[in-house]
Amino acid sequence: MPQTRSFDPYTENGGTILAIAGQDFSVIAGDTRQSEGYSIQTRYAPKVFRLTDRAVLAVNGFAADGNMFVKKVKQRLEWYRHAHAKDMPLRAIARLIQTMLYAKRFFPYYVYNILGGIEEDGTGAVYSFDPVGSYEREACRAAGAAQSLVQPFLDNQIYFKNQVPAPGTTHPAYLSLPDVLSIVIDSFTSATERHIEVGDGLEIYIVFAKTRDLQDFETIRAKNVHLIQELTVAEDGERIFVLRRDLKKD
Amino acid sequence: MFRNTYDSDNTVFSPQGRLHQVEYALEAVKQGSAAVGLRSKTHAILLALKRSTGELASYQQKMYRIDDHVGIAIAGLTSDARVLSNFMRQQAMAERMIYNRPIPANRLVSSIADKAQVNTQEYGRRPYGVGFLVIGLDKTGPHLYEFSPSGNSYEYFATSIGARSQSAKTYLEKHYEGFADCSLEELITHGLHALRETLQQDKELSIKNTSIGILGPAGAHETGVPAQGSFRILEDEKIDVYLQSMVPKELEAPPITAPPPTAGDVDIQMTDN
Fold first, then answer.
1. pTM for the complete prediction?
2. Is residue B139 helix, strand or coil?
3. Keyword annotations for this protein (chain A) (predicted)?
4. Torsion over CA of A231, A233, A236 and A238, rounded to 10 degrees?
């Protein structure tokens, strides 16, 4: 019987991420459960990370690759800051992520990335990537274990697919922040119901354009004071908040 | 002292026990325009005089950010400075990646000192032609270090390097005892007075030729500084308010600790006035 050795470098750590772009804001969310097979490794392992005051990266797939990839992206952003004394624009970060992923085309990062934030022109943006760097700007994207449950819901609710507007009206071009947050929360609670790898906790990052009035957000913030934290570093620029909620633990 | 048979090879000592190539490298630092560094209990600052080749030219950059908690001012060969500051940035980032913490400033300075020493002992390599003033902020407070191409590094309360830096050192030696309790604005004023001492006869400090690097909490005239007091470089219009705080050149800058002399006293009298 010939001897075989094998090295299995990858594993799947479950979880789901989601991002939706508004007109002048962007929402990027991920659950916090990390699993392997039928076991839970931890109930709190963040998958969504602040890169700059206007860019947030969510990583899903193989957690070790995801965490390392985020560290390397942050290092590249730091080199950019040293060279240019300012933060990298969002579409430049998106292109950078493509080149970093494709550089390992023949031993890939097993990570599905979703980059969300505010573009240089002040609009909300979402960029989604495959493990080897194919990417595209979109209005919304779900990735991970419950992608097949969440993405169709988004296609119906964000793109209004298979929906006919009431006579004499059109579908809105952009959704409001409360609507988007409701869609995100409902996506995750529903995914938690039917997918074993989703649950425990939910972290939602919200990035606002410089020019945006935060009145409607302040009313949300007042009702959820303990759940919302601001992460903005610079003054007079984009603002970024994180909202944490529980999800069912079974 | 110069122009003898022992000064071409780095690896040859002179009969007096000197390495002339290293000493010539120190000369390159002395030719660079002046930089001053000083610290208080809460802040560490760097001030530098930028040179330009003429009225039409831009002014040479004298300061680099290494990390949130470390900044440097340079004097000497700018190209060598770029290479060494790049190395410092790599070291700082590697420390954060490997140990999940900001690199202690003294360790960072030791790492470039060790790197510079290699170039004083290997055949065919020349020493770096640049000196640094390094400021760092850690749990034990603000720090100031001088790095020189000989591979030596020292920690200071206040010091200066570059052309006519001895004049700045004289000012600093006179006033340093009051630095510990200075506010940021007072510290900057002292630094500007020290830097002014290095100027030639008809020159003066302006928003064009002066750079200020700061570590520590935000000052009264600053906005947008993160809570931990990350390293920032002030240039152009932002400097103006500090230049205005300087005492005009004709008057002496008043010393902080010396009390006014009482009229007519020959001996000091221990009375309760």
1. 0.88
2. coil
3. Proteasome
4. -50
What digits encode the pLDDT tens for the residues A85-125?
999 999 999 999 999 999 999 999 999 999 999 999 999 99
Please give the Cα distance from B156 to B151 (Å, whole number).
Answer: 16
* pLDDT for B261 beyond 60: no
**Residue reference for tokens 């996506």:** A187
Distance (Å, rounded) from C-alpha B226 to C-alpha B216?
Answer: 10
Q: Which two tokens stand for residue B208?
A: 């064009």
Q: Which amino acid is residue A216, in one-letter code?
A: D
pLDDT at B162 exceeding the cut of 60: yes
Tokens read off for A119: 């573009």
Instruction: Average the pLDDT over B133-137 and give the result.
Output: 98
**Predicted pLDDT of residue B256:** 55
Element spanning B46, H or E: strand B44-49
Kindly identify which residue of chain B lies nearest to residue A237, measuring between CA atoms: B224
Q: Where are the beta strands (DSSP E) in A65-224?
A: 111-118, 124-129, 135-138, 140-144, 201-208
CA distance B139 to chain A (A): 21
- Out of A82, A85, A233, the one facing B226 most closely (by C-beta) is A233
CA distance B85 to B75: 12
Residues 22-81 of A with CB under 8 A from B: 71, 75, 78-79
Token reading at A241: 């908040």
Span B46-71, mean pLDDT?
A: 94
Which ipTM value was assigned to this complex? 0.85
- B223 interaction partners in chain A (CB closer than 8 Å): 235
**Contact by Cβ (8 Å): A71, A80:** no
CA B57 to chain centre: 24
Task: Identify the three-state secondary structure at position A133.
Answer: coil
